[in-house]
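Model it.
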Amino acid sequence: MEIVIDRFGSYHHAVSGRLLIDGQHVCDTLEEDVHCLPEGEYALQRNSKLALPYYIRLADVDSGVDSPVDSRVSFSRGNGIHGWRNHCIIVGECLHLGFLIHSEACYDLLIARIRMQFVRHHAVVVKISRSPDFLEVA
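Modeled.
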């Protein structure tokens, strides 16, 4: 399964994006600008924490060296730029730049789809890119 996060805009300290699974729009994302992952391709791994069951592996896949626990990026629930967990990508429906709604439903749907891939022993890849028409609002 391929998860694509296409970042389309930033507002204050938040970066908004679209999350696509195998080319189909599933939900929108919100990231804190200082903790945004660089554009690239990452593997999704299981996490021992039940609250955040999967994380994006920051290490080079070929090196075999795993990322430190405090720098792992996970998908999470939330509605805006206030009160987010460190190193999380919040999922939901974008109401406007910097604010999401229906986060709980989107998170549950995303985690269910990811879990099914892991049950089937299929790899999950996360690709992060920046849209050519990226919008920056101060």
